[in-house]
């Protein structure tokens, strides 16, 4: 099962959305869905391959503002906040030394999101980039302004 939430203020037809998602996923086996609440849905997949592909690719190729989360099958899906999304952040305006050392780069990345799952550093590269790249979880309910 995959619970997901759509972050939008625009009105939309739930049935049309769920049908469009089913078509975009091109699942091998049957996909069933249920509306849990305002902009919150639960999709059940019958094939582990479909589930794995969808969790890796998500909906961001198809629809922006969607948060997917893995469900353990036991906990109440209505308790899920579904407010964090995985993004690649380009952190600019920092000292060059912070981009080159992994330990320092990870400390900087923690200031943006939590926890950084991957930080790309330029140790030993001839043409280093002027920013830090980090894969992070961002909380959609908090401001992105960081000073």
Layout of helices and strands, plus pairs?
Layout: E1 2-6, H1 14-25, E2 31-37, E3 40-45, H2 48-57, E4 66-68, E5 84-92, H3 96-100, H4 102-110, E6 118-120, E7 131-139
Antiparallel strand pairs: 1-3, 1-4, 2-3, 5-7, 6-7
Describe, in plain words, how this protein is organized in 3D.
With 147 residues, the chain is α+β, with helices and mostly antiparallel strands. It folds into 2 domains: 2-79; 84-139. It has 4 helices and 7 strands, in the order βαββαββααββ. It has a 4-stranded antiparallel β-sheet. It has a 3-stranded antiparallel β-sheet with strand order 5-7-6. The longest helix has 12 residues, at 14-25. It starts with a strand and ends in an 8-residue tail after the last strand.
Q: Which outline best applies? A: elongated
End-to-end separation = 38 Å
Q: How many structural domains in the coordinates?
A: 2
Mean pLDDT: 79
Quick structural overview:
This protein has 147 residues and is α+β, with helices and mostly antiparallel strands.
Keywords:
147 residues; 7 strands; alpha+beta; 29% strand; elongated; four-stranded antiparallel beta sheet
């Amino acid at each position: 099962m995959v619970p997901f939430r759509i972050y939008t203020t625009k009105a939309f037809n739930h049935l049309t959305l769920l049908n469009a998602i089913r078509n975009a996923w091109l699942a091998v086996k049957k996909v069933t869905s249920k509306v849990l609440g305002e902009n919150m849905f639960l999709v059940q997949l019958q094939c582990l391959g479909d589930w794995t592909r969808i969790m890796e690719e998500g909906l961001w190729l198809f629809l922006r503002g969607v948060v997917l989360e893995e469900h353990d099958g036991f906990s109440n899906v209505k308790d899920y906040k579904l407010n964090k999304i995985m993004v690649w952040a380009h952190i600019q305006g920092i000292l060059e030394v912070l981009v080159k050392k992994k330990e320092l780069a990870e400390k900087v990345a923690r200031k943006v999101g939590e926890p950084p799952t991957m930080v790309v550093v330029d140790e030993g590269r001839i043409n280093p980039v002027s920013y830090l790249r980090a894969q992070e979880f961002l909380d959609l309910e908090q401001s992105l302004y960081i000073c």
